[in-house]
Amino acid sequence: MNVQTAAFNLVHDYPGGATALAPLLGKSASTLNHEVDPNYATAKLGLADALKLTMLSKDRSILNAFAMACHCMVLPLPSSPEGIDDDTFTSVTRMAREFAEVISQIAEVTADGAVSDNELGRVEREAAELVAAVQAVLAALQARNRASKRTSQWEAR
Predict the structure, then answer these.
(1) What distance in Å separates the CA atoms of residue 115 and residue 104, rounded to the nearest whole number?
(2) In degrees, to the nearest 5, what angle opens at C-alpha 135 toward C-alphas 129 and 136?
(3) Over the range 100-123, which residues count as b (16 or more CB within 10 Å of their CB) and which as e?
(4) What is the Rg, in whole angstroms, of the alpha carbon atoms belonging to the chain?
(5) How far is residue 88's CA from residue 135's CA, in Å, rounded to a whole number?
(6) pLDDT tens-digit profile of 142-155?
(7) Does pTM top 0.85 for this prediction?
(8) How many CA atoms lie within 13 A of 56 on its CB side?
């Protein structure tokens, strides 16, 4: 799906459609309809409005279509629930970043069809950083698991 179609579908599939979303963007429903209509060449949806629509609707279709057009993918990151102050979510974010860096290195070093010793070394270093990030996530989850067991033991008394 292309970005224009994703924007059109997001607006029209949202409960209340353009009539509900347009005021939240500070525009009329007619203007928003024109901006997302692929047959209306003179009006364009801006990036800031695309971001607002994505955040308001919690629909990532525009983002995913943009990423696909750039030969990328979107990886949603978890947010830390209220009252949780451990490193789990920070570690997951780091792990996702390290994974992206491994993929980026692999794409870079294989672009010419050959992999030199130096290029292989770069990928190996990135992979080692990814493994360390995975281990940090596991350590954070293990700590949360131990804390849960302590809490449940106290509740059982």
Answers:
(1) 14
(2) 90
(3) ebbeebbeebeeeeeeeeebeebb
(4) 22
(5) 11
(6) 888 888 887 766 66
(7) no
(8) 21
